[in-house]
Amino acid sequence: MENNEATRLTESLTQKVDDNDYLSSFTNRYGTYGIVAAAASTVIIHVLFFSLLMGKKKGKKRGVPVEVGGEAGYAVRNARIPQLVQFPWEGANTIAALFEQCCKKYSQNPCMGTRKVIKKDFVTASDGRKFEKLHLGDYEWQTYGQVYQRACLFASGIVNFGHNVDTRVAIFSETRAECQIAFQGCLRQNITVVTIYASLGEDALIHSLNETQVSTLICESKQLKKLAAIRPSLKTITNIIYFEDDENENISDLLGSMGGWNVSSFHEIELLGERAPVPPSLPSKDSLAVIMYTSGSTGLPKGVMITHGNIVAIAAAVMTIIRGLGTNDVYLAYLPLAHVLELAAEVGTAIGYGSPLTLTDTSSKIMRGTKGDASVLKPTLMAAVPAILDRVRDGVLKKVEGTGGLAKKLFDIAYKRRLQAIEGSWFGAWGLERGFWDVIVFKKVRAALGGHIRLILSGGAPLSGNSQRFINICMGAPVSQGYGLTETCAGSAFTEWDETTVGRVGPPVPCCYIKLVNWAEGGYTISDKPMPRGEIVVGGFSVTSGYFNNPEKTDEVYKVDERGMRWFYTGDIGLFHPDGSLEIIDRKKDIVKLQHGEYISLGKAEAALMSSKYVDNLMVHADPFHSYCVALIVLSREVLEKWAEEAGMEYKDFPELCDKAETVSEVQKSLSKVAKDAKLDKFEVPAKIKLVADPWTPESGLVTAALKIKREQIKAKYKDELQKMYH
């Protein structure tokens, strides 16, 4: 999701704080003292029950030590199971088998929902730029039976179209129902699918397609123009299948530029399959299902080879750890399907497809008066990257501060009481006070995401404890922080629904072990007190096969032990708490030794400093030849301009405001405060900073599609600025 769309999501969520209709009517009817009295009564009820609860509940055991093979270390498994799970149930040992069995068992249940474009229009901004606005209808659903039928038709159609099943297919598209149908269709013919981020630059796209020798490319019609431009560089493409889009009016012209390629629409492929059915060629659990290209935080992206067995193992694990997962759940799919988190999430339940541009009522492509995807779908489950949740938290707080008065006082009281309920155990056991504050304060905020969310999964990067707790309280649902990599097929650890602490990523999921091994250079050992620490190594059924066409890198980070188990060395540093939950504390590549011998973790410092209200993004930089670190700070324009207005500052434009000494001083003070709150050491706090006016977006090449910073690319772009800060 791009930074500007993250801002739109924030605005949609936070606008609800301004809507005080319910609060006003309650106050008018009962008065301010009525609210206070109602709140007090719930506290009294809690006190009456306190004696029944007999103190704090004993901590739950979530992970237990286990003996495993390979390098010596401290290994843990999920406490729920004695042996690792491999399949969801007997016979579901491939994605194709799992999909077919689900479709036949739940043939009449809703499977995939999509909103139809009713009307589109363009609005012109004050600077002359035009923005597309959409009026979207309700979700139109296909049942599991219908989706299965379409996948079978596509499987036959792609063979009739001339695709050689011994070659690979690539999907280059934003997330949509047709992507999943095409994906399942390819797997029924044992065709390996290459997934590529739709936001990937030309060089990375060419590299990915040529390296995997893709012969058939599936894409949106809007991507045809980009493909035509790089056509001379694509060595193996012979077939193009495009998704029909109502808003693309120049399709005839685009198809005219595709001469020499065999081009067909997705619908035409289905018709080919209907006219001439082809028997399926079903895969085995060891068959290669996906070559997933990472978004590439350094250099060109690497293709991770994921088998059918890897994905069904994750599906089996998820079924054991998400409480009550079933046919009544609705999942909002809007993250890129090329991200392993989204690919793994789109298994089971009803899936409603949306996009970052139409997600909420105030998203940039939503026409005034039209509801956003979340408002219409009312999902129960959704995934998000931490950058989005951080912005939601900052946006809600900003709106609360701006509203002031009774609304702010009530929000502060409600938040404090809910925080005590969660952290105080005996409050958390009773829902009376929770229900009161939910109705009075938090209900309006939750309505922006449909009001039915029961679980938010955060993945892709570390989520700050403050943001995790804040979203948990305001949205009234657990925020489960997951830990995993593309190389481990998404989740390796997952906080459970009843987890009340923050900053941890939970125990290993039931399909893998997590082991800590000594990293002497960084000073982390499994004998550390009070808790074992070390590099995180993941082993089990979800560990992937390695990097495509890159045996050297594969051998560097993948190992097979004497028992035949495959292990992946993550490069992350973790510790295990006594209850078996994992906490990520460092990353090997992010650790720099300063001139006087101190070790600084760049990721740790960045995660803490992101809490500053002025920070939209940042990169901490350390040089071994100096005794201090520096930072590049991408500023939150709205927050900074509000501060400048209140301070009576005069400036010509935003870049000039960023360069003013007063601005630098104000931001530095904010960083020092959050650093102190996070208990950073003095050498971990940037001694000098450079304020950046332009946001870092995937299009700029400075962050990945999952909004992780690309450290090397940022260092190259701001080389001169970094050098000046060290002189």
From TrEMBL:
Q: What would be one Pfam family of this protein?
A: AMP-binding
Hey, which pathway is this one from? Lipid metabolism; fatty acid metabolism
- Necessary cofactors: Mg(2+)
The family database entries (Gene3D superfamilies) matched by this protein are listed as: N-terminal domain of ligase-like
Q: What's in the GO CC field?
A: endoplasmic reticulum; membrane
* Membrane as UniProt keyword: yes
GO molecular function annotation: long-chain fatty acid-CoA ligase activity
Q: InterPro entries per the record? A: AMP-binding_CS, AMP-dep_synth/lig_dom, ANL_N_sf
Query: Where do transmembrane segments lie in this chain?
Result: 30-53
Keywords in UniProt for this one?
Membrane, Transmembrane, Transmembrane helix
Q: Where is the AMP-dependent synthetase/ligase domain?
A: 133-548
Give the matching SUPFAM superfamilies. Answer: Acetyl-CoA synthetase-like (SSF56801)
Q: Is the keyword Lipid metabolism assigned to this protein? A: no
Listed name of the protein? Long chain acyl-CoA synthetase 9
Q: Which organism is it from?
A: Hibiscus syriacus
**Lineage in the entry?**
Eukaryota, Viridiplantae, Streptophyta, Embryophyta, Tracheophyta
